[in-house]
Amino acid sequence: MARIQLKFRPIFPVCLALLCLCFASAARAERVELGIDVLKAHDFSLLQGKRVGLVTNHTGIDSDGVKTRKILAKAPGVRLVALFAPEHGLDGVVGAGKYVAARKDPLTGLPCYSLYGPTRKPTPAMLKGIDVLVYDMQDIGSRSYTYISTMAKCMEASGEAGIPFIVLDRPNPLGGLRVEGPPMEPGKISFVGQLPVPYVHGMTTGELAQMANAKGWTSPKCNLTVVKMHHWQRGMTWEQTGLKWIATSPNIPYSNSPLYYVATGLAGEVGGIETGCGGPAPFQVAACKWTDARSFTSYLRSCDLPGVTFSEYTRNGFQGAQLHIDPNAQADLCAIGVYILAAAQKSTSHSIFTGSDSKYDIFYKCYGSNSIRAAIERRVPPSHIIASWAPANERFEKERKPYLLY
């Protein structure tokens, strides 16, 4: 028996090691390959012999973390000639709504034009000498996040200039199954709502580009190509992609930040409601100075929000709730914002909206309608407001099907 034990003892660790290597290889093989990875794997064939303009920022990286602008600057047969930066700038550190200046990119030595300064759309002068415009930035899956607005404006500019537009696709961190939130009313199109889609649209940037181009949301239409990802599936959370999260902007630092942005971002546009922006947990709280944490939190706990829990929050005179959202939560995340507004209104005999409608212009544009103010002031049950979104969202789910790539 001793000889048998000696004979088989060294084999078990070897087998175990081989199994671990197999599992590790399988895991690596299933990591999502981004549009830039696929473009690189095909020897940049779409860009060969062309002068390229790149719409990008710090989130434009391949699956190994190498910046797209660095990759294209060194790609054989490709001539990268100009960069275009969105809100938050090329490095993603400029605050929300702050002017982004044009500058020279120290990494590539190329001019970087601002698309969040004097213009939100590339001008003919900026596009002079460019044969193709490429877009590569990480979106967060919400209509009001301006990276997709920048994409739409760039598509328009490409159509006007008669140059091709290429989208290097990336995952939607909210997944591809959520279609939630208020629709966009006619006349409410703005840079915080450039495309008439639900607040949570459940599409990748490439899919949005296809739909916008086909339906004439960007005019004139452009010569569009989407470089698809490999291995991405619609039900994936970010953690399942195998990719490292890069803070898309100062208040979206974590891979779960998009969930909280959707939950509290709209309510945070109403003056007096604190959402934690500027601190270590942006968008993860909802609080105001005219309520108490216990009743506010108790109300939110009573709402039907599976996968979302609340704990009492008190800081600097603000009282309310801290949110905890499971990435697979079944709750309508946009509904949370309406419940927060209702909880804030329930806590006072006065309207939580003070002053004229012009004061809430951005809030209305993000929400897609002015109707929300009157509904909250009249204390319309949140469930009625949320239910009113359903017909438009059901129509959208049907309309988007021809443009889904995954």
How is the topology of this model organized?
Layout: H1 2-8, H2 11-29, H3 35-41, E1 51-56, H4 68-74, E2 79-85, E3 103-104, E4 111-114, H5 124-127, E5 132-136, H6 147-161, E6 165-168, H7 205-215, E7 224-227, H8 257-264, E8 285-288, H9 293-301, E9 308-315, E10 318-325, H10 333-346, H11 361-367, H12 371-377, H13 382-387, H14 390-400
Parallel strand pairs: 1-2, 1-5, 2-4, 5-6, 6-7
Antiparallel strand pairs: 3-4, 8-10, 9-10
Helix pairs in contact: 6-7, 8-10
Defining key terms:
406 residues; alpha/beta; Rossmann fold; 2 domains; seven-stranded mixed β-sheet; 33% helix
3D structure, described in words:
Helix 6 (147-161) packs across helix 7 and helix 8 (257-264) packs across helix 10. With 406 residues, the chain is α/β, with parallel strands linked by helices. Strands 3-4-2-1-5-6-7 form a 7-stranded mixed beta sheet, with helices on both faces. A 3-stranded antiparallel beta sheet has the order 8-10-9. The protein has helices spanning 2-8, 11-29, 35-41, 68-74, 124-127, 147-161, 205-215, 257-264, 293-301, 333-346, 361-367, 371-377, 382-387, 390-400, and strands spanning 51-56, 79-85, 103-104, 111-114, 132-136, 165-168, 224-227, 285-288, 308-315, 318-325. Helices cover 33% and strands 13% of the residues. The model is unreliable at 1-29 (pLDDT under 50). It folds into 2 domains: 35-248 and 399-403, Rossmann fold (3-Layer(aba) Sandwich), CATH 3.40.50; 257-389, Aspartate Aminotransferase, domain 1 (Alpha-Beta Complex), CATH 3.90.1150. It is built from 14 helices and 10 strands. It is elongated, with a radius of gyration of 24 Å.
